[in-house]
């Protein structure tokens, strides 16, 4: 694991520091990255960022000539406006690590110059509690050292997996990038169903939230497969089996519904890439 303090000499730049940029920065600072080795470009900085700036982080200040890494964490819709401001850093040994959904590596190469190492990463918001999962893939100029550096940076907020190539990125975005939202919606839907069965709203929400987070933690820690954990809950002829008959219906169950949802997200990723 690379020592984040090693980045201090050349510096690390964040272009955009909203939810995802902040989650990553918090993880890095927690692992010993020095505040004065971080430059953040962000039009509307949070109070948290302003507090860090008071303690040495460079906020909306002139950038170093050749930082080790630029993390790009603006929304894809802002990319065409934001990225060209860093054009001077392209092609000069700075690794561009981007978490933006949809925007293809070719866009960065066009904007920053073909000699620029680019790694595209797809994290997710459990990064905020160190339990994210991030998938990465790079252009041909991204060396093994660059990939290892990206892995070291991103492992500060959870697991990291390498993809076979960029062609897998839309599916990954639709599964793990957007996936936490599906789980949060499951909590909402479960609570609403409990209310429909007569429970008061606060109790239904407490039960639903604890059930989803508890089941998630069990899935995280237990050696069994998800299928076995499901079977462990299901008494023959009991209540769970009755619910699963609905949820596992081949036509109207959660399987085909989830396929439609994930396909919609992947299709949107492909649209954003155009
Ligand atoms: N949220 C998620 O679950 C995930 C997000 N991503 C990707 O991460 C990226 C960031 O998303 P997220 O953190 O949620 O979004 P946010 O809107 O929270 O963060 C984006 C930040 O970039 C800032 N910004 C806008 N224009 C510029 C500019 N010209 N220069 C510098 N900064 C600018 C925005 O400022 P302002 O608010 O003032 O406009 C904002 O603070 C996106 O590309 C998204 O696709 C990837 C995986 C998961
Ligand atoms: O909704 C989005 O576009 C981003 C990408 C993955 C999660 N959030």
Brief overview, please?
The chain has eleven helices and eight strands. The chain has 274 residues and is an alpha/beta fold.
Structure write-up:
It contains 11 helices and 8 strands. The chain is elongated. 33% of the residues are buried. The longest helix is centred in the C-terminal third of the chain and has 21 residues. The chain has 274 residues and is of the alpha/beta class. It has 2 domains: 166 residues, 3-Layer(aba) Sandwich (Rossmann fold), CATH 3.40.50; 94 residues, ProC C-terminal domain-like (ProC C-terminal domain-like fold), CATH 1.10.3730. Strands 3-2-1-4-5-6-7-8 form an 8-stranded mixed sheet, with helices on both faces. Helix 7 packs across helix 8. Helices cover 47% and strands 13% of the residues. The model has no long low-confidence stretch (mean pLDDT 94). Bound molecules: NADPH dihydro-nicotinamide-adenine-dinucleotide phosphate and (2S)-3,4-dihydro-2H-pyrrole-2-carboxylic acid. The site of (2S)-3,4-dihydro-2H-pyrrole-2-carboxylic acid has 4 residues, from helix 6. The site of NADPH dihydro-nicotinamide-adenine-dinucleotide phosphate has 26 residues, from helix 1 and helix 3.
């Amino acid at each position: 694991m690379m020592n984040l303090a090693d980045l201090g000499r050349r510096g690390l730049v964040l272009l955009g520091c909203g939810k995802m940029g902040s989650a990553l920065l918090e993880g890095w600072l927690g692992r010993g990255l020095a505040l004065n080795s971080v430059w953040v470009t962000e039009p509307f900085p949070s109070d948290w960022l302003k507090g860090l700036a008071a303690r040495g982080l460079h906020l909306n200040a002139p950038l170093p000539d050749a930082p080790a890494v630029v993390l790009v964490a603006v929304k894809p819709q802002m990319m065409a406006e934001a990225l060209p401001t860093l054009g001077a850093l392209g092609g000069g040994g700075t690794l561009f690590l981007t978490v933006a959904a949809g925007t293809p590596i070719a866009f960065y190469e066009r904007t920053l110059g073909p000699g620029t190492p680019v790694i595209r990463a797809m994290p997710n918001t459990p990064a905020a509690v160190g339990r994210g999962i991030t998938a990465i893939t790079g252009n041909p100029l991204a060396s093994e050292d660059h990939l290892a550096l990206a892995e070291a940076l991103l492992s500060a907020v959870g697991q990291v997996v390498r993809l076979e190539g960029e062609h897998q990125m839309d599916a990954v975005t639709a599964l793990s990038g957007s996936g936490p939202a599906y789980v949060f919606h499951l909590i909402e839907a479960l609570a609403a169903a409990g209310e429909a069965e007569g429970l008061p709203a606060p109790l239904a929400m407490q039960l639903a939230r604890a059930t989803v987070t508890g089941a998630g933690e069990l899935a995280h820690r237990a050696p069994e497969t998800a299928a076995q954990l499901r079977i462990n809950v299901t008494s023959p002829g009991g209540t769970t089996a009755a619910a699963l008959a609905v949820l596992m219906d081949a036509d109207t169950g959660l399987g085909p519904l989830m396929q439609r949802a994930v396909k919609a997200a992947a299709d949107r990723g492909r649209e954003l890439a155009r």
